[in-house]
């Protein structure tokens, strides 16, 4: 367990490692504990502060969603912040007493580190008491969660373009983005409820200024929750757009197959008839018989293509384009099964969180 102490007095702030020293007159302490499996040490630290032992154990061993527990003598506020390495959250357990703020976290907290440095530079940040400092910490933590919404807004345009183009890579990217959004959304809604409880709490540990600060933070978290809900809807709409584009592409392939079948079937019928093993077929013994049959087959093919041009299934092409339209269509049809199989293997090979790096790059570094 590693603990650091910031003591705030009317004359300024001082950073020490002396956890057990008494609180100076008119001042209060912020004790930040990086605890990972150090339950006994944390219980020894929490004993003089009369913190609930079960809540202290949970702060080390359990992972809770954001909540507020009122123990009378102190409040337990569980917050979740955004990690720096991946799109994920970590837990911060905050114990608030009349003259102490104890923050417990099992992994590095960029929000706590940033606030710790700012309080040392600007002593006025610690002038309001531990409840207002907790409000400032909740503000930083919540605004970092809002960054995920901003990152998604930048990413959704690219996803929309991929959907309209029926890009096979969209399925993997969409799954990864949905996973990232769901990870943050899972904690934002409980955190909004916890902050709503703090801004309305009747506890004497929270001053009127503290309630106003928690009310401001509540607005930030509410906006984050609305943004994540909208992101969820946008992802569903993007998937629907992708399915529609994919269906349109499949319709074009079906059209090509229909044109191919409609042209080839009558020709196959004629070739099948004259391919029967009967000696009395008309023109079979004549030198001009094959020319008549080929001419009839070409006329039927031209008539079939003309009908498809008339109904608008294929464009009115001239010259060499008219002779090559069916060939190009058949080439595309022959490539389609290969593209589909390749897309399936490509989707299976892409990691489920393939967009984590892109979302993380969109998150600005914390000041």
Major sheet: arrangement of strands:
2-1-3-7-6-5-4
Q: Find the count of extended strands (DSSP E, 2+ residues).
A: 7
Helix content: 55-70%
User: For the terminal residues, how far apart are their CA atoms?
Assistant: 26 Å
Low-confidence stretches: 316-360
Tell me, rounded to a whole number, the average pLDDT.
78
What is the string of SSEs from the N terminus onward? EEEHHEEEEHHHHHHH
Overall radius of gyration:
35 Å
Largest sheet: 7 strands, mixed
Structural class: alpha+beta
Approximate strand percentage:
5-15%
Q: What is the 3D shape?
A: rod-shaped
Structural key phrases:
about 375 residues, alpha+beta, seven-stranded mixed sheet, 9 helices, 7 strands, about 60% helix, about 15% strand
Put the structure in a nutshell:
The protein has helices at residues 39-46, 53-61, 110-121, 130-164, 170-200, 208-274, 289-311, 320-349, 356-362, and strands at residues 2-9, 12-16, 28-34, 67-70, 75-82, 89-96, 100-105. The chain has 367 residues and is α+β, with helices and mostly antiparallel strands.
SSE arrangement:
Elements: E1 2-9, E2 12-16, E3 28-34, H1 39-46, H2 53-61, E4 67-70, E5 75-82, E6 89-96, E7 100-105, H3 110-121, H4 130-164, H5 170-200, H6 208-274, H7 289-311, H8 320-349, H9 356-362
Parallel strand pairs: 3-7
Antiparallel strand pairs: 1-2, 1-3, 4-5, 5-6, 6-7
Helix pairs in contact: 1-2, 4-5, 4-6, 4-9, 5-6, 6-7, 6-8
């Amino acid at each position: 367990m590693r603990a650091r102490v910031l003591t705030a007095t009317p004359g300024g702030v001082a950073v020490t490692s002396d956890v057990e020293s008494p609180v100076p007159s008119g001042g209060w302490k912020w004790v930040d504990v990086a605890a990972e499996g150090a339950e006994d040490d944390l219980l020894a630290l929490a004993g003089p502060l009369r913190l609930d032992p079960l809540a202290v154990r949970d702060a080390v061993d359990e992972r809770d969603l954001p909540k507020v527990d009122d123990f009378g003598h102190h409040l337990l506020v569980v917050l979740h912040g955004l990690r720096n390495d991946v799109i994920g959250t970590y837990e911060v357990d905050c114990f608030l007493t009349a003259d102490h703020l104890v923050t417990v976290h099992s992994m590095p907290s960029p929000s706590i580190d940033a606030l710790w440095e700012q309080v040392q530079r600007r002593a006025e940040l610690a002038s309001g008491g531990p409840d207002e400092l907790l409000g400032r910490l909740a503000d930083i933590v919540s605004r970092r969660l809002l960054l995920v919404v901003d990152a998604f807004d930048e990413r959704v345009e690219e996803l929309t373009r991929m959907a309209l183009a029926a890009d096979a890579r969209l399925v993997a990217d969409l799954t990864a983005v949905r996973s990232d959004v769901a990870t943050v959304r899972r904690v934002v809604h409980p955190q909004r409820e916890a902050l709503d409880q703090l801004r309305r709490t009747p506890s004497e540990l929270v001053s009127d200024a503290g309630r106003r600060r928690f009310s401001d933070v509540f607005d930030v978290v509410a906006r984050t929750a609305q943004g994540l809900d909208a992101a969820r809807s946008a992802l569903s709409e993007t998937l629907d757009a992708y399915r529609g584009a994919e269906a349109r592409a499949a319709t074009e392939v079906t059209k090509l197959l229909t044109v191919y079948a409609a042209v080839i079937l009558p020709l196959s019928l004629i070739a099948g008839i004259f391919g029967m093993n009967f000696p009395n077929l008309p023109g079979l013994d004549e030198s001009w018989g094959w020319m008549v049959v080929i001419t009839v087959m070409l006329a039927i093919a031209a008539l079939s293509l003309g009908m498809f041009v008339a109904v608008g299934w294929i464009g009115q092409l001239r010259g060499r384009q008219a002779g090559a339209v069916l060939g190009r269509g058949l080439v595309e049809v022959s490539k389609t099964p290969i593209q589909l199989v390749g897309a399936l293997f490509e989707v299976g090979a892409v990691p489920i969180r393939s967009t984590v790096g892109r979302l993380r790059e969109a998150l600005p570094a914390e000041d």
